[in-house]
Amino acid sequence: MAQYQITVDQELLQQLFLGHSKDAGVAKLLESVLNQILQAQVTEQLAAERYERTDSRQGYRNGSYPHQLTTRVGTITLRVPRIRNGQFSTELFARYQRSEQALVLALMEMVVNGVSTRKVTQITEELCGTHFSKSTVSDLCKRLDPIVEAWNYCPLSDRRFPFVLVDALYLKVREDGRVRSRGVMIGIGVNTDGYREVLGIMTGDTESEASWSEFFSWLKQRGLGGVDLITSDDHGGLVRAIRHHFQGVTWQRCQTHLMRNILDATPKALRDEVHRHVRGILDAADIETARMLLNETLKVFEEKAPKAMRILENGFDDATAVLAFPEKYRKRLRTTNSVERLNEEIRRRERVIRIFPNRQSVIRLLGALLMEQDEKWASGRKYLDMEDYFTWRKSHSAKTHSKVTRIM
Fold first, then answer.
1. Domain-by-domain residue ranges, the chain?
2. pLDDT tens profile 345-370
3. Which residues lie closer than 8 Å to 28 by C-beta, 6 or more apart?
């Protein structure tokens, strides 16, 4: 790592410690430090100090131009060096994380393809400079795309994922001169160490059985295994694909989606009361208690809210599948809320773009964002303590083996 000698004058120190605005003082200090670093970097690049005569000199300075940089302590002005017959390069302006770089790239692609709005053009010019070309966008994509692709296709065979949560969202993508709605499938797994991982993302024409089958086949080809429970919503194509590709694996219907479906079919005056009863069923300590509460709820509301009760009765077994697992895991495995929180982060950036210029930009932006989330999960606290799961799994396997022996 390069080391630089920085000097700070007395006037700047006085402003920092005695000035009315501490942020203004810090901003001035930061501005001074960064400008000194820029001068040190151009000296390194040219292999010569200003006015120095040496045979090893690589070029000559040609003044500087101002570049405003927005920081947490205010906007500062950097004096970026110019080099005669060359281009000065610095890492100071690479201030965006991968996800932010991908967002800017998507905006830039919209501009070069002639489909951006005036606001998007202004944003990209502010972030990237007044001019950029299609070749510039292509070069930047070539740097980021291999990183995202390597992450999205990394092998999964070196670890097991007992718990998997899947969900999809729809984005608008420009294809063949038309704007089309495309599904993006996302999978999250909890590994045997108790950490969450993003298993992968894939775009599809629709959220159909064929699209989900392709997604699950892809995950299995990369080595996904050891799955005991999959949580998802009740989309027909998704459920059929799960049952086809993960035979014998428990499917947990997302309780949040079920509750929403029930309340949508409930008369408004009864919604609070129905919500309390259904919540009691889903929070039951065991399946026997849940079934008893179900029967009581059906008796109370089957005439007042018949449609809602049919939805509850039909969805009961799938929504309470998680009760077969140890209690400490149920709260986090009974819904797809974990995936939907990721979707909210995606939506926050997608609202800026509105229409993606192509499918690759979707994978680039979402992949970069999910990569960063993956890194946070890996370096953070465990999502689940898996000790009780291993005990439950061992006991469950022993019971299954005993049952098979008796049948034989």
1. 1-98, 99-153, 158-393
2. 888 877 777 888 889 888 988 888 89
3. 12, 15, 16, 76
